[in-house]
Every structure is written in C-alpha cells, then in structure tokens.
Amino acid sequence: MKGGFLPLFLLVLFGIPSCVVSQQNQLETCSQLFRCGGSVGDIPYPFYGGDRPVWCGAAGYEMSCRDDVPLITISSLTYRVLAINDQARTLRVARDDLWSGLCAQTPQLRNTTIETTLFNFYQPSNDQNISLIYGCTAPPLPTLPPNQFECSSSAAFFFIRAVALTSSITCAGPEVTVRVTESAATGLESNPSIGLLQTSLQGGFSIQWSVDNQNCQRCSGSGGACGSNVTSGSFVCYCANNASFPSTCPNGNNYISASFISQPHHWI
Ligand SMILES: *[C@@H]1O[C@H](CO)[C@@H](O)[C@H](O)[C@H]1NC(C)=O
Ligand SMILES: *[C@@H]1O[C@H](CO)[C@@H](O)[C@H](O)[C@H]1NC(C)=O
Ligand SMILES: *[C@@H]1O[C@H](CO)[C@@H](O)[C@H](O)[C@H]1NC(C)=O
Ligand SMILES: *[C@@H]1O[C@H](CO)[C@@H](O)[C@H](O)[C@H]1NC(C)=O
Fold first, then answer.
1. What is the 175 CA–ligand 3 centroid distance (Å)?
2. In the chain, which residue ranges form alpha helices assigned H by DSSP?
3. What does the pLDDT look like over 97-140, one tens digit per residue?
4. 25 lines ligand 1 (CB under 6 A)
C-alpha cells in the first residue's frame, strides 16, 4: 500500500501547479481601449467598464454603454457622458431621466446630487442651478407664463437663480435642482421657454473627478497601464511580464523579466 501511495502523493503535490491554464495578462487587459460610440473617444483611467475590469480603473468610476451612449451613475442617478477632459479631470454630463422629457419620471424625480467622494461640481465652469417645481395649481391666465409646463395635468415651473414662486401658486412638489451651463442659463433668462430648457439640459454641465491623474500619466509614460488594487484601493501600474508597481514601470518597461525584478539586484 505504501508503495502506491507515495507516487500519487508526489503527483498531487507537484503535478497540479504545472496544469494552471494561461490567464489574463494585466498590461494587455488594461491597455484595452474602452469606447462607446464616437462622441467621447477612448474612456480613460480612472473609468472602467466594457472589457476593462474594475482593477483597470479606480473603484466607483464605472461607465456603461447603452446604444453608443456612455453612462455613469452617481448617487443613484444616471447621467449621459457628453465629453471627457482628461487634463482637467472633468466630464460634461446630462441627466438621462430628463433627456427626452421634463415629466417622464415625476413624481420620483431627484435632485442633481454630484458631491460625493468621487466627484464634485466643476466650479470654474460656473454652471447654474435651475429649479423645477412640479405639482402646482396655477390660476388660469390668458397666456401661459413662458416658464410653465404641464405634467400629469398639473402645472410645473422652472426658475433660474432661485426666483421665488408668486403667492398665487401652490405646489405639492417635487422640487428638484438641475444644472445648465452659464451661457444656457443666460439664454434662458432672456428667452424662457420649455424648448430651450430641454436643449439646455441636453447640453449638460461639468463635474470633476477626484482621483489624481498624475500617477497615471507617469505610469503611461513608462509604458505601463493604469489600474488599482481592489483590496487596498491604491494605484497600480501594470507593466511587462505581468509585473505591477506602485508608480511606474522600471526602465521604461523594456524586456525585463518579472523574476529579475522581484529579486534583489546590485548594480556594480
Ligand atoms: C497575471 O497576474 C494576475 C494577477 O496576479 C493573474 O491572475 C494572471 O493569471 C497572471 N497572468 C499571466 C499570464 O501570468
Ligand atoms: C432638492 O433640494 C431642495 C433644496 O435643497 C429641497 O428643497 C428639495 O426637497 C429637494 N428635492 C428632492 C426631490 O429631494
Ligand atoms: C446649486 O445646487 C447645488 C445642489 O444641487 C448646491 O450644492 C449649490 O450650492 C447650488 N449653487 C447655487 C449657486 O445655488
Ligand atoms: C493589494 O493590496 C493588498 C493589501 O494592501 C496587498 O496585500 C496585495 O499584495 C496587493 N496586491 C497587488 C497586486 O499589489
């Protein structure tokens, strides 16, 4: 019995590791471009989605693609991504729920809440708040005010720069804040109309992502692909031969083997 057991034991001990199937190479995986339609170009780090798993981006920065439109969900609201500026770390986004109508989601409409650990409103763009107030009872007038519209047979209004409602109007809500560019707000002030409000909302507003890009620029410059350690959340630079480093690839990611890198080496 002993004679039969030992070879089997050795086979189990040493035979299994050589059977490991070849797996994904990190540099190749994270070098894959994530494109969605033609409008925003390649979607860069810290974003992930499509063929790029979370470890090719930074946690929370997931984008998806629907009918060639890149989408991102922030505080449970979905936004269409209209433009990406990698240098300024900004996205121009528009609310998906208000894209094709101002009434679609009432009464479940929510505020545009962007301020999270991942994003902030981009202050330099000076985008403006617009209030939408639903469920109102407005006195019948010979001509409708230009900022009034109908949703579910009740009146709704929009206001720029938080103009107060007149006392003759009572509203059950919801009241939600949306954002448009400064020039769209100026246009709406001189020509308040529902059509212009709709196109203004489709123009979007700017938000800035929080994750530092300099790490990634240094990593890319050394021939690596950016990503993160999903356990610790820290930045990772993926390099040749499936090696990864905290910042850049050594020696410009030339043909250095992983075993060479992992061994202590003394330059003489
Ligand atoms: C590369 O490293 C990852 C994570 O350590 C591993 O899952 C994968 O199998 C490796 N791929 C190759 C080709 O060695
Ligand atoms: C949106 O924010 C305004 C102002 O902070 C608040 O009065 C309103 O109730 C909020 N609306 C919703 C739907 O949460
Ligand atoms: C616009 O609304 C956001 C919340 O949606 C708020 O944080 C911000 O202070 C408002 N800005 C102005 C100028 O009222
Ligand atoms: C990720 O972080 C964990 C915890 O800090 C660490 O143990 C692990 O080695 C890291 N993995 C990589 C691939 O850097």
1. 13
2. 2-15, 26-31, 182-190, 194-203, 214-221, 258-262
3. 999 999 977 668 899 999 889 999 999 999 999 999 999 998 88
4. yes
